[in-house]
Amino acid sequence: MMLFLLIDFPKFKPIAFEIGPFAIRWYALGYICGITFGWFYARSLLKKQRLWGGPAPISLVQIDDFILWVTLGIIVGGRTGYVLFYNLPFFVEHPAAIFKLWEGGMSFHGGFLGCVVAVMWFARKNGISILSLGDITCGVAPIGIFLVRLTNFINGELWGRPADPGLPWAMIFPTGGDVPRHPSQLYEAGMEGLLLFIVLAVMIRMGALKRPGLILGSFILIYGLTRIIGEHFREPDVQLGYLWGGLTMGMLLSIPMLIVGGVLIVLAVRRGAPQPVKTVQ
C-alpha cells in the first residue's frame, strides 16, 4: 500500500500555553485571534473613505462596541447550531454538556446565524445600515475561519475521508484508524479561509463596499460553494454519517446559502452604488 510514503501527522498538544492553573487551548486561541485580527482589519477598512465612496456608514466607536455582540453571536449561535444540527439526541440526554465548550463542538452555520442576529440587532439599535455592517463583518470573517480550521488540524479532529495511499499528502490521524486520509481541515482552511479572504479583499479594493450587500452576498455564496466542495473530502460526523443521496449535514446546510447569497448579489448589483450627496456652494 506504499504506507511508507505517508506523511506522519505532527504530534501537537491541544494546549497552546498555560498560565498557572489556566490553560489556553489552540481551539480557543483560534477564535480569539480570529476575532482580534478581524477587528483590526475592519477598523482599517472603515478608515479608508475611498472604499466606501465617502465616509464609512459605521464609526470606529460603533465597530468597537460591535465586537462584543458578534463574539456572543458566534459562541451562542455556534454552540446552539452544533447541538441542534449535529448531536441533539446526546445533548437531550446530557444537557449539562451543552455548556462544556472546552470539549469542542461548534457549528459554522449556527455561528453564522448567530452573527446575522447580532448584525441585525446592533444595526437597528444604532441606526446604521444592516447590509453595510453585514458587509464589513463578512469581509473579515475568513480570517477567523482560516485560523479555526488550522486548529481543527492541530487537534487532529474533523479529519478527511479515506485517501489513496499514493496521495503524497495523505495522513494517518491518531483517532482516524490505520487508514490514510485527506487532511480536509487544511483543504477547508485554504478554500473557506484563505481563498475566500483573497476574493473578498480584491472585491473590496474594486469598490464592492459601495454596493451594500454585495460582500455579504458574495461571502454567503462562495462559502456555501467551498464548504460543499470541502465536504466531499471530509469524513461525516460519526453520529450522523451520510444523509439522503450521500449528502452530509454540512452540504445540506450550505445549499440554502447558495440561494440566499445569489439573491443578495443580484439585489446589490441592481440597487447600484449610492450617489454621493452634492452640496450647494
Give a summary of the structure in a few sentences.
The chain is mainly α and 281 residues long.
SSE topology:
Blueprint: E1 7-8, E2 15-19, E3 22-25, H1 26-46, H2 49-52, H3 60-85, H4 88-93, H5 108-126, H6 130-154, E4 171-172, H7 184-205, H8 214-231, H9 249-271
Parallel strand pairs: 1-4
Antiparallel strand pairs: 2-3
Structure description:
The chain is mainly alpha-helical and 281 residues long. It contains 9 helices and 4 strands. The strands form 2 sheets. A two-stranded parallel ribbon has the order 1-4. The longest helix has 26 residues, at 60-85. The protein is globular, with a radius of gyration of 20 Å. The chain starts with 6 loop residues before the first strand and ends in a 10-residue tail after the last helix.
What value does the average pLDDT take?
A: 90
User: What profile does the largest beta sheet have?
Assistant: 2 strands, parallel
Which stretches are low in confidence, meaning pLDDT under 50 for 5 or more residues running? none
Structural class: mainly alpha
Number of beta-strand segments: 4
For the termini, the CA-CA separation is 79 Å
Helix content: 55-70%
Shape: globular
Features:
two-stranded parallel sheet; mainly alpha; 281 residues; single chain
